[in-house]
Write a structure and sequence with these properties.
The complex is a heterodimer of chains A (113) and B (117).
Chain A (H helix, E strand, L loop, with lengths): L8 E5 L4 E6 L8 E7 L6 E6 L4 E2 L4 E4 L5 E6 L8 E8 L15 E6 L1
Parallel strand pairs in A: 1-9
Antiparallel strand pairs in A: 2-7, 3-4, 3-8, 5-6, 6-7, 8-9
Chain B lengths: L3 E4 L2 E4 L5 E7 L6 E7 L6 E7 L5 E2 L8 E7 L2 E6 L8 E9 L6 E4 L3 E5 L1
Parallel strand pairs in B: 2-11
Antiparallel strand pairs in B: 1-3, 3-8, 4-5, 4-9, 5-6, 7-8, 9-10, 9-11
The chains are: A mainly beta (113), B mainly beta (117).
Chain lengths: 113, 117
């Protein structure tokens, strides 16, 4: 079973920031938070990951709470092409027993014009 | 980001035939590749983990004699669906582990849609 909880769907207006929450209250000390997205009929696309600190790259920002029990993915200026299912996944390091990516249902984000 | 390709992107075959799907890491060496299957409106399910030069590790319920995996080089893994049947129709996706960027990140291919008639 997935170790994360996400809302099943969200809407966001084009040009606005999209904030996608994720709860991972049972996260353990060696587990990272990863975000992927899957656009219809395509393979998943890596977005960002983090351990404790907030992270930012060209695609998004990841805000992790101090207790690490939840996080938020931020797409700063959403476009129509950001419409996809977004997956929040926690996993350990390679060769750890918790290394596998376990996919939940994700959040279906719809960007509206 | 790292690029992973798959070929073919879609294939239609007759029941009983075998289908080979290739997965390549284009700009990095992948000692480990993963094969997933995704049925309509469902999440990805891991089928097997493939390490270069050794036998693949299959998830529970996945028949290793039906889904043959070969990982002969650091940039290529193949999945062969043997004696395919209509129930094998699905979206097959590979991923490759890039441990060289310090991210321990899996990058995914675009997927192969298999339809068995």
């Amino acid at each position: 079973d997935a170790k994360t909880t996400q809302p099943p769907s969200m809407d966001c207006a084009e040009g606005r920031a999209a904030n996608l929450p994720c709860n991972h209250s049972t996260i353990s000390g060696n587990e990272y938070v990863y975000w992927y997205r899957q656009i219809h009929s395509q393979g998943p696309q890596y977005i960002i990951h983090g351990l404790k600190n907030n992270e930012t790259n060209e695609m998004a920002s990841l805000i992790i709470t101090e207790d690490r029990k939840s996080s938020t993915l931020i797409l700063p200026h959403a476009t129509l092409r950001d419409t996809a299912v977004y997956y929040c996944i926690v996993r350990g390091l390679y060769m750890d027993s918790n290394y596998q990516l376990i996919w939940g249902a994700g959040t279906k984000l719809i960007i509206k014009p | 980001g790292a690029v992973v390709s798959q070929h073919p992107s879609r294939v239609i075959c007759k029941s009983g035939t075998s289908v080979k799907i290739e997965c390549r890491s284009l700009d990095f060496q992948a000692t480990t590749m993963f094969w997933y299957r995704q049925f309509p409106k469902q999440s990805l399910m891991l089928m097997a983990t493939s390490n270069e030069g050794s036998k693949a590790t299959y998830e529970q319920g996945v028949e290793k004699d039906k889904f043959l995996i070969n990982h002969a080089s650091l940039t290529l893994s193949t999945l062969t669906v043997t004696s395919a049947h209509p129930e094998d129709s699905s979206f097959y996706i590979c991923s490759a582990r890039d441990g060289g960027r310090g991210a321990e990140t899996q990058y995914f291919g675009p997927g192969t849609r298999l339809l068995v008639l």
